[in-house]
Amino acid sequence: MARAVQAEPFEKVTIKLLMLGDSGVGKSSLMIRFTNATFSEQMMGTTGIDMRVKDLNIQNRHIKIQIWDTAGQERFHSIARTYYCGAHGIILTYDVNDRTSFNNIPNWLEDIRKNTKEVFILLVGNKIDLHKVVSDNEAKEFAEKASIPFIMTSAKNDENVQDAFVNLIETISKSGIVIKPEKMRLKKKEETVKKCC
């Protein structure tokens, strides 16, 4: 991944997050709820890649958050992998009302770990406003075995959405793995030549 630099107090830094998971689990809804504080029942599935930006002041840093929303369909997986490079955090999402989306989480996790080196992962069980077919305990047990944090959300009701994003961002910020915008621009070509995950 891109070379990490230690951020100084009040310095502007950029954090890149990816939204991953099966199609229809609510990745776009979570991203838009966090960035725009809105929700739509008529949300169309993402085709390819979408990106939103949000600025936050956390831990004496002005953080520009780039959130990349990827399509969950199998045919778009190769496109999504090209965005793994340089990512600091991944929000890996399943639908608590869709057993298949949860069963596919190990496949997503394997793909992430195969194609990234140093990235923070948060497992999110979305749509808790609906009937659950995946129990809380089952998801928690999986997250513990996988050594990743876990949170349950509802993009529709705005439940735990802010906590999910902010907690992940704070974890990344504390780790020191953040990229200065000017450094990212200057070294973009060099990093692409050397390696991209």
TrEMBL record:
GO molecular function, one term: GTP binding
SMART domains referenced in this protein's UniProt entry, alphabetically: ARF, RAB, RAN, RAS, RHO
Lipoprotein keyword on record: yes
InterPro entries xref list: P-loop_NTPase (IPR027417), Rab (IPR050227), Small_GTP-bd (IPR005225), Small_GTPase (IPR001806)
A Pfam entry, by short name: Ras
Alphabetical UniProt keywords: GTP-binding, Lipoprotein, Nucleotide-binding
Protein name: Uncharacterized protein
